[in-house]
């Protein structure tokens, strides 16, 4: 199998995140990391390749430091890494990003057919969750989203989705696109051997010209979405801080009873 995993370099979710005056996520604070949900996508792809053979290609779009996302993919076990780097991409919304990713997947597929495209269910910066569907549309692939489990057999991919009160099993012929949730697996930690091996693997850098993408179709000016308004989360009010002098548990229980919460 040949699997392309789309990964993203995002601000650390534990850090103080902010939007700039242009309504875009501030990404220059040096605290970027691989989108956590993309680790699940990488793990799912690596497990399928270990079972069926083949290779995993880690693919990202973004500025210079976005290369860290595909390098983490190499450390985990991906065979190939591709970084689409071009100033014309700056400011792209999810649709522009999907346009570039789709062109990159086609380019990767020109070398050898791609059987499966795997993504995380969302980027933890914008949290739109729209990219998997937009990418599947542009690639004209069947999409199976929010997979909590996926298997491949007999030329088809099958996923299980967890709904509020039921499980749903869906299947589609390959090639296809699957987005996974954090329920899918427990991502592996890169070991020392993997980290050292990743240092020797090159990262293929492509531009919009390499992909045949019209710069006018991506970037901030081509964005179909915009942040109209954003405001900091208001400080919490009416908080009661209790120093535990041995009676905190009793006071908490009394407060819950008083407010009819138990």
Description:
Helix 2 (67-76) links the parallel strand 4 and strand 5. Helices cover 30% and strands 23% of the residues. The model has no long low-confidence stretch (mean pLDDT 91). The chain is of the alpha/beta class and 262 residues long. The chain has helices at 36-52, 67-76, 94-111, 131-139, 192-200, 208-211, 248-258, and strands spanning 2-6, 9-11, 32-34, 55-61, 80-84, 116-120, 143-147, 149-153, 156-162, 167-173, 176-180, 203-206. Helix 2 crosses helix 5 and helix 3 crosses helix 4 (131-139). The strands form three sheets. The chain has a seven-stranded parallel β-sheet with strand order 7-11-6-1-4-5-12, sandwiched between helices. It has a three-stranded antiparallel β-sheet with strand order 8-9-10, with no helix packed on it. Strands 2-3 form a two-stranded antiparallel sheet. It is globular and about 70 Å long.
Q: How many whole angstroms does the radius of gyration measure?
A: 21 Å
SSE succession:
EEEHEHEHEHEEEEEHEHH
Mean pLDDT: 91
Label the overall shape. Answer: globular
Number of H- or I-type helical stretches:
7
Poorly predicted regions are none
Label the structural class: alpha/beta
Features:
262 residues; alpha/beta; 7-stranded parallel beta sheet; 3-stranded antiparallel beta sheet; 7 helices; 30% helix
In short:
This protein has 262 residues and is α/β, with parallel strands linked by helices. It has helices at residues 36-52, 67-76, 94-111, 131-139, 192-200, 208-211, 248-258, and strands at 2-6, 9-11, 32-34, 55-61, 80-84, 116-120, 143-147, 149-153, 156-162, 167-173, 176-180, 203-206. Helices cover 30% and strands 23% of the residues.
């Amino acid at each position: 199998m040949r699997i392309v995993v789309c990964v993203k370099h995002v601000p650390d979710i534990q850090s103080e995140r902010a939007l700039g005056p242009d309504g875009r996520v501030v990404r220059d604070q040096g605290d970027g990391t691989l989108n956590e949900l993309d680790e699940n996508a990488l793990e799912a792809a690596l497990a399928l390749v270990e079972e069926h053979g083949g290779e995993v290609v880690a693919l990202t779009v973004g500025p210079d430091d976005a290369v860290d996302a595909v390098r983490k993919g190499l450390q985990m076990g991906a065979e190939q890494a591709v970084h689409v780097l071009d100033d014309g991409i700056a400011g792209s919304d999810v649709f522009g990003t999907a346009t570039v990713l789709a062109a990159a997947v086609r380019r990767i597929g020109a070398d050898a057919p791609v059987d499966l495209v795997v993504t995380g269910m969302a980027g933890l910066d914008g949290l739109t969750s729209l990219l998997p569907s937009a990418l599947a549309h542009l690639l004209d692939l069947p999409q199976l989203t929010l997979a909590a489990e996926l298997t491949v057999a007999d030329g088809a991919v099958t996923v299980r989705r967890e709904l509020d009160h039921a499980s749903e099993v869906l299947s589609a012929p390959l090639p296809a696109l699957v987005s996974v949730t954090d329920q899918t697996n427990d991502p592996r930690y890169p070991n020392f051997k993997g980290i050292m091996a990743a240092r020797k693997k090159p990262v293929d850098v492509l531009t919009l010209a390499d992909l045949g993408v019209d710069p006018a179709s991506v970037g901030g000016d081509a964005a179909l979405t915009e942040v109209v308004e954003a405001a900091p989360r208001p400080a919490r009010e009416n908080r009661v801080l209790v120093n535990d002098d041995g009676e905190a548990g009793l006071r908490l229980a009394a407060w819950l009873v008083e407010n009819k919460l138990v």
